[in-house]
Recover the amino acids of this structure.
């Protein structure tokens, strides 16, 4: 509150206090005067009553005898009483018996007898009482008193009262002014301090503290509050600086996390895209394998039947070589789609690296320097060593092509351990665990970011037409992913490329079952591939493959039964079970799948010999074929020799 406003409040409070005090003094004086007059009237009434009793006692006898009043008796008695103005004694009949009048100039005392009791006039007080004798009224006495003397006495004291009131008023003013000064001075100092704090935000000022009363406690409390605010502001400033530093650090970390999350999201999108492309490529390869099986088989038969005609045989052999190249293409597509039949095992990745390096040193441009990892101990990995050899070779060949004028090809191996981060979205975080990291980097021409985003897509290539189909890196991606690993690429134009593969560390587990991948047609080479009249049931939904298998097996001396689906196959087997030596069963068929047919065959004959065939090897990859009772797996596309060798091996095995 401004000082001027406090001064106005002080003045208003002073005049209000003086006004209330003056009114109070006047009321007190009026009350005292009223009490004084009332008490004077009461004392005078009592005095008149005693005088009346004395006068009545003196004249009671004369009234009783109806004699004349004693002469001079009233004058002698009442002349010494100045307050008595007049006395009148009335006889029983109302006539004036005698009377007394102090001032002879007053009117006659003859007047009608007033009523009994005390009557008060403006300037007089009168008393009327009966004069009794043994209960009989002899007359009435009327006494009148003059109160002017009393009023005159009060009027004499009025100046004194006024003087006392003025002195009291002055004293009150002086005392109250001093009191207000003691009260308002600390308040004004407090107001000035508050204004300085409010306007200037200056919390270092303090209110002067002069006394130990309530105002002193208020000033002390306000000063303590200012000290706490000043301390709090200092702490807040320190906290603000620390918070700004923390915010800068947190912002920097957040930016790094956003960049990392963006990178991981891109990797996740890339993985999802590759998953879809791989499924498409795998589906195409599966159907293509069925066609290649028919083409390769018939070409092989045609070449064998061509006899001595060298020209026809050469043509058939060229066509057969083309189908083998098409078969290789389908295997690459299956690798892209992670649907190849792999044989995972524990092995040292360093040995695979050294095998690839030995081949590269004999075939690569000598201007390219190859740097190999040191012979340090790295963990074993659980994967298909042959597939990893193929993947590493593809990466090195791509690196060679990126350095037509020479450069440096570096291969490195590292052991990596990652812990759980506990972030909000685990799908975007690198997987925790133990891994072996394989790094292949070059100093070649590098790639643009757009190219890096598509480098693993099937049929995407930056090479010239005729120098690549765009399946190499896509196949590498499929192989690494099928072996439960990850692959990433970092590259910039004219700064080279860096491919990083991480494969899970192999953990020894007791009692691990043997993998069904051992059931391959290349187990052993039989002494002869011809049959001796054994009956073979071929259950295959593809008509051309079924006819091809019948033609090949019959030429080898087998008896063949056919079934176009699983339901028909079970019917034929139940009818010819005693003479059927083996069943060649397609994995994917309408009505009843190969696994359903296999389960029924096992119930009919636990010792049945079954060869499972499929152009979609990933389906068999997930199965424990040995546990299911499958004795061999025949991968499509296959040639007649593969079919004959696999069947002969199965028939030669003990049941």
């Amino acid at each position: 509150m401004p000082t001027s406003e406090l001064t106005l409040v002080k003045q208003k409070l002073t005049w209000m206090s003086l006004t209330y005090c003056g009114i109070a003094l006047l009321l007190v004086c009026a009350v005292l005067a009223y009490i004084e007059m009332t008490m004077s009237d009461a004392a005078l009434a009592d005095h008149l009553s005693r005088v009346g009793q004395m006068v009545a006692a003196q004249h009671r006898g004369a009234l009783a005898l109806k004699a004349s009043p004693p002469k001079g008796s009233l004058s002698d008695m009442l002349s010494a009483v100045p307050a008595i103005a007049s006395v009148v004694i009335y006889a029983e009949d109302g006539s004036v018996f005698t009377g007394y009048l102090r001032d002879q100039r007053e009117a006659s005392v003859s007047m009608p007898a007033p009523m009994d009791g005390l009557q008060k006039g403006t300037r007089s007080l009168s008393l009327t009482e009966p004069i009794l004798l043994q209960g009989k009224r002899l007359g009435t006495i009327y006494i009148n008193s003059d109160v002017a003397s009393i009023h005159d006495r009060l009027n004499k004291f009025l100046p004194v009262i006024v003087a006392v009131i003025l002195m009291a008023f002055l004293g009150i003013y002086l005392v109250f002014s001093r009191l207000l000064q003691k009260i308002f001075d600390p308040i004004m100092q407090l107001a000035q301090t508050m204004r300085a704090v409010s306007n200037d935000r200056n919390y270092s000022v303090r209110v002067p503290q002069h006394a130990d009363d309530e105002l002193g406690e208020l000033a002390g409390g306000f000063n303590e509050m200012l000290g706490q605010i000043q301390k709090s502001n200092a702490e807040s400033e320190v906290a603000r600086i620390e918070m700004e530093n923390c915010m800068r650090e947190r912002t920097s970390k957040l930016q790094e996390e956003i960049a990392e999350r963006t990178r991981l999201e891109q990797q996740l999108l890339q993985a999802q895209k590759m998953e879809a492309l791989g499924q498409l490529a795998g589906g195409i390869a599966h159907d293509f394998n069925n066609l290649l099986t028919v083409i390769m088989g018939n070409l092989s038969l045609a070449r064998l039947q061509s006899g001595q005609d060298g020209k026809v045989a050469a043509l058939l052999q060229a066509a057969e070589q083309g189908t083998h190249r098409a078969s290789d293409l389908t295997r690459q597509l299956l690798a892209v789609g992670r649907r190849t039949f792999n044989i995972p095992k524990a092995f040292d990745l360093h040995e695979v690296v050294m095998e690839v390096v030995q081949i590269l040193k004999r075939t690569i441009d000598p201007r390219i320097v190859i740097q190999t990892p040191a012979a340090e101990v790295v963990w074993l990995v659980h994967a298909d060593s042959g597939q990893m050899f193929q993947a590493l070779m593809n990466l090195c060949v791509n690196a060679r092509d990126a350095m037509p004028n020479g450069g440096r090809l570096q291969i490195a191996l590292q052991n990596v351990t990652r812990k759980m981060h506990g972030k909000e979205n685990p799908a975007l975080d690198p997987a925790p665990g133990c891994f072996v990291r394989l790094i292949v980097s070059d100093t070649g021409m590098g790639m643009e970011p757009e190219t890096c985003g598509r480098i693993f897509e099937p049929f995407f290539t930056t090479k010239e037409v005729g120098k690549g189909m765009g399946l190499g890196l896509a196949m590498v991606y499929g192989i690494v992913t099928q072996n439960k690993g990850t692959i990433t690429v970092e590259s910039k134009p004219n700064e080279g490329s860096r491919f990083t593969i991480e494969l899970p560390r192999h953990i020894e587990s007791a009692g691990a079952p043997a993998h069904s991948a051992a059931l391959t047609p290349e187990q052993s080479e039989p002494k002869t591939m011809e049959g001796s009249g054994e009956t073979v049931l071929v259950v295959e939904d593809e008509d051309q493959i079924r006819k091809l298998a019948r033609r090949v097996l019959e030429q080898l001396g087998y008896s063949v039964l056919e079934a176009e689906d699983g339901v028909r196959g079970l019917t034929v087997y139940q009818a010819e079970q005693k003479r059927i030596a083996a069943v060649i069963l397609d994995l994917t068929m309408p009505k009843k799948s190969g696994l359903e047919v296999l389960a029924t065959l096992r119930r009919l004959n636990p010792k049945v010999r079954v060869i499972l065939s499929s152009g979609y090897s990933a389906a068999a990859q997930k199965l424990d074929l040995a546990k299911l009772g499958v004795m061999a797996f025949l991968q499509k596309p296959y040639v007649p020799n593969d079919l004959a060798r696999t069947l002969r091996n199965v028939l030669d095995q003990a049941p």
In short: The CA atoms of residues 209 and 216 lie 6 Å apart. Residues 214-305 form the longest helix (92 residues). The chain has four domains: 3-167, 234-340, 344-504, 516-652.
